[in-house]
Amino acid sequence: MPSHISAHLNTVKGMVMELTLNNGVTMPALGLGVFQSTPEQTTAAVEAALAAGYRHIDTAAAYGNEREVGEGIRKSGLDRSEVFIETKVWVSDYGYDQTLRAWDKAAGKLGVDYLDLLILHQPAPDRFEKTIAAYKALETFLADGRVRAVGVSNFMPHHLKQLLAETDVIPAVNQIELHPYFTQPDVQAADAEHGILTQAWSPIGGITFYPGWGEDRRNVMEDPTIADIAQRRGKTPAQVMLRWHLQQGRSAIPKSTNPARIAENFDVFDFELSADELAAIDALDTGVRNGPDPDEARAERFAMVIPEA
What we know:
The protein contains 11 helices and 11 strands. By secondary structure, it is α/β, with parallel strands linked by helices. It has one domain: NADP-dependent oxidoreductase domain (TIM Barrel, Alpha-Beta Barrel), CATH 3.20.20.100. The protein has an 8-stranded parallel β-sheet with strand order 4-5-6-7-8-9-10-11. It has a 3-stranded antiparallel β-sheet with strand order 1-2-3, with no helix packed on it. The chain starts with 5 loop residues before the first strand and ends in a 7-residue tail after the last helix. The model is unreliable at 1-14 (pLDDT under 50).
């Protein structure tokens, strides 16, 4: 585990592993992701996750389901302070003043007066001056208490280098595509160098088998090495992959709308992978990205307008 990350693992089944971010804020390492969860599915998924023991929910303005995440949290009956809420600013809201307004959109939809973690969704290198300005707005939110931590998503080492040269606050988190078939060791190393926690999206390789996302993709859920470890451990391949992330000091945000699968994904605190098993999973890396290239300019996608609250 990287030395900059302080973590403790409760071995009682169902207890939450927490990671301490570089500003001292603690965050549950395992959270529910709601990427591609329709608004109709999201409220129930969040309720199911919180009932199963999750205390961390990850959403984004671009997902179109922040409002339903807020509804799910309220319906859970939990106090706001018990749930770590993470969301993302979309590129069309980059720029200092625009990002100040993005806060109103996110907080209004979620129904909260502060966020635990607010991050920039893409580096958008074709307009990086706006990315820098947006991050400076995040720094303002951090200073005035509207967020407890700030971060980035899909930032490669060269993006991080430029961001750090032009801003004051080191990101607490960098959320990137990371699963056994694509581990991005260079990004993980750059994050660790600066005390940034690496958070895995698509942590169980969902992006390798989403229908319609791409052709000729290998399904990491069906990998024989992972299947063999899962059989020996009496766990599912997904549980093995999530345990792999946690033992290596990463945060992971698996997505599901199935209550049984949501609970199953949280049941990863009662076993431990050996060093050889961790190494075997590490060796599966293909170096092939399945999600969008963070260096690619996607003008049409970036122009998507985020509605007001």
